[in-house]
């Protein structure tokens, strides 16, 4: 089954004061680290949605097999970036073809506990169960990274600009398969978070 990845890396990180995508953790920027995990997971195509400081973030993805696309309305929120990413995923197949993916794996770049192994576990759960949604489970909730079958794409594209995928995951719990992600709720919002999670 062909599973594409949408890496949401457009935000300006208001609390941090600069795009968190460019923070360095163990010698790599967060966006580079997330993109490498997506590539190592064996998914494809991988689309990174950029916004704030596009050129600087794009430079961090050099030489990786990652398609980049800019969300001109990135300041309106995750929902708009998700929509841009899904459309780019459809267009990211070889020349003259559609992306042809059967599912999209949605991920952020600030969850330091996410690695290629966890992304592969999500894909394997999808292949095994054929669930509409396979989500990461942490801190008593379900969230991203999460894999959405093609049947769910219209719901994702219908999200308001300031909404994320979590609402779609929570809408019908019976259609969701959960894969545990220890520490999944530990994201990076401040420089202190980065130091604490190093």
Shape: globular
Low-confidence stretches: none
Structural class by helix and strand composition = alpha/beta
Helix content: 25-40%
- Please tell me the overall pLDDT: 89
Oligomer class: single chain
- Please report the distance between the alpha carbons of the first and last residues: 35 Å
Please tell me about this protein's structure.
With 198 residues, this protein is an alpha/beta fold. It is 32% helix and 23% strand. The strands form two sheets. It has a seven-stranded mixed β-sheet, sandwiched between helices. Strand 2 (24-25) and strand 3 form a beta hairpin. The longest helix has 14 residues, at 78-91.
Helices and strands, with pairings:
Elements: E1 3-9, E2 24-25, E3 28-29, H1 30-40, E4 46-50, H2 54-59, E5 67-70, H3 78-91, E6 103-108, H4 116-129, E7 133-138, E8 141-149, H5 153-157, H6 166-171, E9 176-180, H7 191-197
Parallel strand pairs: 1-4, 1-6, 4-5, 7-9
Antiparallel strand pairs: 2-3, 6-8, 7-8
Search tags:
198 residues, alpha/beta, seven-stranded mixed sheet, 23% strand
Short overview:
The chain is an alpha/beta fold and 198 residues long.
């Amino acid at each position: 089954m062909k599973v594409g990845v949408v890496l949401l890396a457009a935000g300006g990180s208001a609390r941090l004061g600069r795009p968190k995508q460019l923070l360095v953790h163990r010698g790599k920027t967060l966006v580079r680290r997330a993109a490498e995990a997506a590539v190592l997971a064996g998914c494809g195509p991988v689309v990174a949605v950029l916004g704030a400081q596009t050129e600087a973030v794009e430079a961090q993805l050099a030489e990786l097999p990652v398609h980049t696309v800019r969300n001109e309305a990135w300041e309106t929120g995750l929902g708009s970036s998700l929509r841009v990413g899904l459309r780019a995923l459809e267009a990211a197949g070889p020349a003259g073809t559609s992306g042809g993916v059967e599912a999209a794996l949605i991920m952020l770049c600030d969850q330091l506990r996410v690695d290629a192994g966890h992304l592969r576990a999500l894909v394997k759960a999808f292949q095994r169960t054929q669930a509409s949604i396979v989500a990461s489970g942490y801190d008593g909730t379900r969230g991203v990274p999460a894999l959405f079958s093609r049947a769910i794409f219209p719901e994702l594209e219908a999200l308001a600009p300031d909404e994320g995928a979590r609402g779609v995951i929570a809408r019908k719990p019976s259609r969701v398969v959960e894969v545990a992600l220890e520490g999944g709720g530990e994201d990076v919002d401040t420089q202190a978070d980065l130091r604490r999670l190093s």
